[in-house]
Amino acid sequence: MTEPDRRQLDGFRAYSEQLQVKLGALVEQGPELARRARAVQATETSPDGLVSVTVGPQGRVVRLDLDPRIYRNQDARALADLITETIEHAVWTAEDRVVEIMSGVADGEQVRAMMNGDDEQVAAIVDDQLRGRR
């Protein structure tokens, strides 16, 4: 066996051992972590305080509150943009909280890619891990 092959095999073994540890932690902690992740809610308020949005762990809007002062401005496009930006901030906050919850048993970048449905990124991360680049 050549030295590069031996290094690759050693990297694979190390990664395999890490996976076994993570799998054990996931089996043990998984149900509680999943419950906590499903319960995540994030609330963000626009800088002017006129829009408040609460989202769940998958970014679904749970609550939208508009301050009555919002009706003083007749710019519907500006209001729509403000609501959209506030929702985006709430989604990012919820995503960060789910990643934090899962960080003990999974790679944060991998969790984020999975949450966003980015299968190519997940595959690239796993490939990097298998090759010892992460």
From TrEMBL:
Gene3D superfamilies reported in the protein's UniProt record: Nucleoid-associated protein YbaB-like domain
Name the InterPro entries on file. Answer: YbaB-like_sf, YbaB/EbfC
**Family annotation (Pfam families):** YbaB_DNA_bd (PF02575)
Specify the domain of life of the species encoding this protein.
Bacteria
Q: What is this protein called?
A: YbaB/EbfC family nucleoid-associated protein
Output the lineage of the source organism: Bacteria, Bacillati, Actinomycetota, Actinomycetes, Geodermatophilales
